[in-house]
Amino acid sequence: MVGKSESGSGGEKPLDLFLKIGLDERTAKNTVANNKVTANLTAVIHEAAVTDGCDRTVGNLLYSVATKFPTNALVHRPTLLKYIVSSKIKTPAQLEAAFSFLAATASDDLKIDDFEAACGVGVEVSLEDIERAVDEIFEENKAVIVEQRYRTNVGELFGYVRMKQPWADPKIVKQIIDTKLYALLGERTAADNEKPVKKKKEKPAKAEDKAIVEETAPAKPSEEEINPFSIFPSPEENFKVHTEIYFSDRPVLRACNSKEILDKHLKVTGGKVFTRFPPEPNGYLHIGHAKAMFVDFGLAKERGGCCYLRYDDTNPEAEKKEYIDHIEEIVGWMGWEPFKITYTSDYFQELYELAVELIRRGHAYVDHQTPDEIKEYREKKMNSPWRDRPIEESLKMFDDMKNGLIEEGKATLRMKQDMQSDNFNMYDLIAYRIKFTPHPHAGDKWCIYPSYDYAHCIVDSLENVTHSLCTLEFETRRASYYWLLDALGLYQPYVWEYSRLNITNTVMSKRKLNRLVTEKWVDGWDDPRLMTLAGLRRRGVTATSINAFVRGIGITRSDSSMIRLDRLEYHIREELNKTTPRTMVVLNPLKVVITNMDSSVMDLDAKKWPEAPADDASSFYKVPFSKVVYIEQSDFRMKDSKDYYGLAPGKSVLLRYAFPIKCTEVIFGDDKETILEIRAEYDPSKKTKPKGVLHWVAEASPGVNPLKVEVRLFDKLFLSENPAELDDWLGDLNPNSKVVIPDAYAVPSLKNAAVGDSFQFERLGYFVVDKDSSPGKLVFNRTVTLRDSYSKGGK
Predict the structure, then answer these.
(1) In this protein, which residues make up the domain named Glutaminyl-tRNA synthetase class Ib non-specific RNA-binding (predicted)?
(2) Residues 507, 525, 753, CA angle at the centre, nearest 5°?
């Protein structure tokens, strides 16, 4: 553990120090949880002499120094901190340039003039300078922008501006680019959100077929495909009956709002759509919640309305602040912004008062049956012995429950619904139970807590939710939902259920996920093999691709479908293919010595992007080529064949971005089987034209191994498509779901990669830098392979 800060901090704890420099509370608390970063940041704050606090911009730069500063140049850290505190270095771009310069300088003497020039010290970029640069870029690329409209690669435009004005404030650059795009293109259209369809070359049509071809028009997408939210009614229509509840002993209840109640509701909301995303804070969110977010936040956004993030925190025993913080953070990462963050516990007083009113109206009673007795009586459709107790007696007993005068488990408040109904969820559901447990949000004020079935619909009504949307397993609860609101005379939202998101080769029940985590079958809630959103993010999956996947599935009520995992992977590849730079890493290195080359090292150009223009330097990176290179062990075999494009004795291959090489000799170990190295000759003239192209990594200097990195290859967590159906579902875990390669070789340009940076390792797949990386060793997680079976099989 890191102790209290001493000199200059007045004995303050690290958390207090971190808050003083402007870190937000969540970042500060996460930092304290990491001993290494805490020690680094505490030292940086003292070195910078800002223990009494500083500007938030400076504080964020100090945080970057604590987490990213090159360890080989620590002697120069105090100098960099002086530049930051004096605001000579004040932007992330300048700081990244400083890191690169200092990493190259290492412990050598620091040449101040060169350092300042490399970091843009003293360079002031005005708003006019940025606007001029953006105008020039738009003029040069106007034809492409007009053609591609909002499909234009904004990152590419940003890169062009960066080349012209490397020290410009990136936020201002982004704002000006967005403004310029809007001025040029106007509002987004539905067509802008559609993915371009690649046209296949068609054979010329026969004469007799031409007439038919000309008459056949392409099928237009349905309104629901263009706008999945078109199926939902407007708030003004919520006077219509759309649910009927049948009772065994009274007339049918046709759920709808009176004109008076609806008018009052519309006056409060202004006729806007109000939805809510109501997760329980008892675990980490998974990809099924991504669909719920898309439905709830998406509808509100599409209609210009509002969506609450409401924590359904009615069970104090299962809820943790860790989960609450995670949910808020992950909702933001998914691209959604709540109108307001609320808690069911915010309404505990109103809920209690309404429960008293429910008793007064004869619709609830205090019961003393045990859980087993309640279960037995419900199965037999028998009334509780206390169901018809006097109202005054129930009011007195409920007050005793509230005041802690009745033991836990000795009484509940139950709704008096319909024990003879055909719907099990009308069998006098529990409204309140006693729990002598402090609440994470409400404290110790309450010892009785409302149930989901009682609280959920009432809070929907109190928050004036227009559309209460949930998954199909709650459909049988719709009767209870409307029964309670009708019994209390409250406004009734429109309720609609949609199918759960079920994906193959995984489990998504919180109980099973919790067991996987607590029993350490996986490495925490953010294990990249899990379908938790934290796990997917750590694996390198973007929120954009998850939302595209969910939108592609649609908002349906068909609950029998299991979505194949490769459909999600298709959307992940679609995005990463466009956004990730290419690089080269060799997972299982095999040494190749080029015998006709001296010990010099060539710096060759390698493409970051497949279609990189030759005159754009930012689209290339330097890769050293030397006498010793490494290829994949799987790219060499002793016996050649027609369908094999790798290296073999006497055979040539092309090293990507470099030269053809030909295997001339194989060096074996003492067992005469293990291949130690390959001897080869290269063709500097490039006249040889081999079919096979291999990725490779070379020694950057003679006798020095390439950059060593750890690579983690993740695969499906379970062998079966639907492991949740198996009795021994843990026995179905894939033993090869995580394969760690500790000593892969990478090109030098990857040295400065930061946590969260994504790359395509050529011929291998898409990878992201993991949080387990350290200054001495980068760790990469495989996001997804290059293989794509989904697009071949149809979308």
Answers:
(1) 15-170, 173-246
(2) 120
Mean pLDDT of the chain: 88
CA distance 251 to 483: 12
Find out whether 355 and 413 touch, Cβ atoms under 8 Å: yes
Query: Tokens in use for 152?
Result: 């234009």
Residue 625's SS3 state is: strand
Q: Quick check: helix, strand or coil at residue 508?
A: coil
Closest by CA position to 428, among listed 395, 384, 474, 489: 384
Q: How far is CA 107 from CA 72, 73, 101, 182, 777, in A?
A: 7, 5, 12, 49, 20
Distance CA 279, CA 453 (A): 14
- For residue 795, what pLDDT is reported? 41
Q: How far apart are the first and last CA of the chain?
A: 52
* The two three-digit tokens of residue 114, written as one number: 């060169």
- Alpha helix segments (H runs only) across 229-386: 259-269, 287-302, 321-333, 348-360, 371-379
Map residue 144 onto helix, strand or coil.
helix
For the stretch 632-642, pLDDT in tens is 999 999 999 98
pLDDT of 546 strictly over 60: yes
- List, by residue number, the catalytic residues: 280, 500, 510
Nearest CA to 491 out of 250, 251, 260 is that of: 260
CA distance 640 to 156: 43
Helices 154-164 + 170-185 axis angle, to 10: 130
Beta-strand ranges (E) seen in 403-525 are: 412-415, 430-434, 448-450, 467-471, 494-498
- Residue 4's identity, in one-letter code, is K
Kindly tell me if the per-residue pLDDT of 209 is higher than 50.
no
What distances in angstroms separate CA 76 from CA 65, 89, 98, 751, one per listed residue? 12, 15, 11, 19
Crossing angle (nearest 10°) for helices 77-85 and 35-47? 70
On whether the CB atoms of residues 319 and 282 are closer than 8 A, the answer is: yes
Query: For the chain, what's the residue count?
Result: 795
Q: What is the CA radius of gyration of the chain?
A: 32
Q: List the structure tokens of 688.
A: 């040889």
Q: Is 113 left (phi over 0), alpha (psi -120 to 50) or beta?
A: alpha
Eight-state DSSP code of residue 236: G
Q: Output the DSSP codes for 697-759.
A: EE-SBTTBPPEEEEEEEE--SBSSS-GGG-TTGGGGB-TTSEEEEEEEEE-GGGGG--TT-EE
C-alpha 514/C-alpha 23 separation (Å) is 31
Q: Which residues contact 195 (CB under 8 A, 6 or more apart)?
A: 574
Classify 605 in phi/psi space as left (phi over 0), alpha (psi -120 to 50) or beta.
beta
Q: Are strands 675-682 and 758-761 parallel, antiparallel or unpaired?
A: unpaired
The candidate with the shortest Cα–Cα distance to 481, out of 767, 253, 140, 682, is: 253
pLDDT in tens, 335-382: 999 999 999 999 999 999 999 999 999 999 999 999 999 999 999 999
pLDDT tens-digit profile of 150-203? Answer: 778 877 887 788 788 888 877 788 888 888 887 888 777 766 665 555 444 445
Q: Cα–Cα distance between 124 and 766 in angstroms, integer?
A: 38
698 close to 628: Cβ distance less than 8 angstroms: yes
Whole-angstrom distance, CA of residue 595 vs CA of residue 785: 34
Rounded to an integer, what distance in angstroms lies between the CA atom of residue 277 and that of residue 285? 12
Measure Cα distances from 268 to 297, 458, 463, 486 in Å: 20, 17, 10, 20
Contacts of residue 254, Cβ cutoff 8 Å, sequence gap at least 6? 241, 243, 244, 245
**In angstroms, rounded to a whole number, what is the distance separating the alpha carbons of residues 758 and 753?**
9
